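Quick illustration, no need to memorize.
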Amino acid sequence: MRDVESSQVSPQLGFTLVELMVSMTLGLILTAGLVQIFVSNKQSFVMSQALSNVQESGREGAMILAREIRNADYWGCITAATSVKNNLNPGGTDDVLDFSRGLEIYPDADGDNAIVDGSHVIVMRGIGGGPEVTVEKVPAADSASLHVSDASLFDVGDILLVSDCEHANIFQVSKANDNGNDLVVHNTGGTMQPGNAVKTMPKKYSDNAKVYRPSVTRYSVQADANGRRSLVVERALIADNSGTASALGTPVELVADIRDMRTHIGVDTDDDGAVDSWQDPPAKDAANATDILAQTLAVKVSILVRSRDDNVNDDAIEFCFPGWLDCTSDATGLQTADDSALYRVYTMTASIRNRTLEGI
């Protein structure tokens, strides 16, 4: 037999302690770098998302309010709310259906409602669209009804406005389309709220008159049960109100994370059709509130927007609110957030179209 020479295998060697320590150190450095990149990218994403959020909310809120303010106090071919006679029973100084104020702006001072204390409230009245129906024939002088082209569109409790461009009256429907007769009745009495104070019109509206639905819209910043604030809208129950029209409907959220809203009104003090001074709106119950708001031609609105997420910034940021202030210190309007969220202030100016056109 032939002897087989056994081969020797070299022993397998491992890492030395020094090599192991060097490799671990390099690994830790690499891991720390990756973690830092991840944290930086995450912070950049959070900031980018917060900026996008507040910009979207700010633009949307400013756009809605600017459009609505421009259309405030619009009564069709009647130039102002002072030319519209209100046949409804009065309901006090805070009456929702006080149509003598086409525009109403005031700081909220009611600590019992959902509106953020100190924020400003904007109420606008007018007509928003075309006529519902036309008057078909002239009624008797003392009639409590109108003959219209289609009375089936209305129901008891609806608030309507009839206008022929010379006169206009607001009334509440006490009966409509009874037995298909296309009559809209505006009598006194009954169980309607607020009801009609008088049944007669100042004139016999002829067949050139038209019937509209007036509107009452209130914008404010309100907080929910969890303290989350939003810009909300409430509309008066002009139609489908079961006979009660003297209240606002359910608040509807328009833009989330609006923390506050402030206004400045541009007042025409000499009736020349131009703004002479910018001032804070009067208190709701101020004696001169009606006169000042009737002279208001434009409105500046500043809204404070907060990001949805906390911990956007390392520290609390400072912001100047309202936006028309020249903030240099706390005394001049410079504020510091009480958290690390992102805050932005958006300010816009809108003229009241129906009033500025009067001076042209």
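Residues 49-71+257-359 form one domain.
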